[in-house]
């Protein structure tokens, strides 16, 4: 197709070393996403059931109503019992190794003006830039975002899972004096616990 040809043309702008490293990382992250899904569904719970349980938990946990609060913790207990933690840990390890291997492979790559690739798949965007430009990135739909250099700005929910159906959100920035701008100001004392996540759950 025309889009496939365009992506192939973009991929040819990267060195063979970078192409291989990127392909290996994407395959590793896809395998991690599959393991994460298996960890959540190994005991017969489907992803839509998980989504329903998460909504129930976040909607009722801060209600102040004792019965609703009790229900939230009952739902949380059911969710906890449904997870295969061994598979979940393997998924996290595989994702971390995939990103670290990519970092090591790309750390000495030369930055070039046309080394950029962007595509969107069912698990989110893959955006690769081995350019020296100063970029601003925003959004919660990145499967993999790699930036080779420049003084970049990351806004809002970068590297946050969009929802239960987007299990991987990886950002690798190799160099530069970067800024990270949160979606909202959070001032809290960790001794009082983490701030309310607004039902996001990620």
Detailed description of the structure:
The radius of gyration is 19 Å and the shape is elongated. The protein is α/β, with parallel strands linked by helices. The C terminus is likely disordered. Helix 2 packs antiparallel against helix 5 and helix 3 packs antiparallel against helix 4. Helices cover 44% and strands 15% of the residues. The chain contains five helices and seven strands.
Could you give a short description of this structure?
With 202 residues, the chain is an alpha/beta fold. The protein is built from five helices and seven strands. It has a four-stranded mixed β-sheet. Strands 3-5-7 form a three-stranded parallel β-sheet, with no helix packed on it.
Question: Quick one: biggest sheet?
Answer: 4 strands, mixed
Percentage of residues in helical conformation: 40-55%
Order of helices and strands: HHHHHEEEEEEE
| Record field, number of beta strands | 7
What's the shape? elongated
Could you list the spans in which at least 5 consecutive residues all have pLDDT below 50? 197-202
Strand and helix layout:
Elements: H1 2-11, H2 16-41, H3 47-60, H4 66-82, H5 85-106, E1 116-121, E2 124-129, E3 136-138, E4 142-147, E5 153-155, E6 170-173, E7 179-181
Helix pairs in contact: 2-5, 3-4
């Amino acid at each position: 197709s025309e889009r496939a040809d365009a992506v192939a043309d973009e991929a040819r702008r990267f060195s063979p070393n970078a192409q291989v490293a990127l392909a290996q990382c994407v395959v590793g992250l896809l395998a991690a996403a599959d393991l994460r899904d298996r960890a959540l569904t190994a005991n017969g719970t489907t992803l839509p059931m998980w989504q329903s349980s998460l909504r129930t938990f976040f909607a009722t946990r801060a209600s102040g109503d004792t019965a609703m609060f009790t229900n939230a913790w009952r739902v949380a207990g059911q969710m906890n019992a449904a997870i295969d933690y061994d598979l979940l840990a393997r998924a996290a390890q595989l994702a971390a190794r995939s990103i670290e291997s990519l970092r090591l492979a790309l750390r000495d790559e030369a930055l070039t003006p046309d080394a950029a690739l962007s595509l969107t798949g069912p698990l989110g965007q893959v955006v690769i830039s081995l350019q020296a430009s100063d970029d601003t990135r925003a959004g919660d739909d990145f499967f993999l975002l790699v930036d080779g250099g420049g003084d970049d700005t990351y806004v809002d929910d970068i590297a946050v899972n969009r929802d239960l159906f987007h299990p991987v959100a990886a950002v690798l920035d190799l160099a530069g004096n970067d800024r990270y701008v949160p979606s909202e100001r959070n001032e809290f004392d960790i001794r009082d616990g983490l701030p309310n996540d607004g039902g996001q759950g990620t």
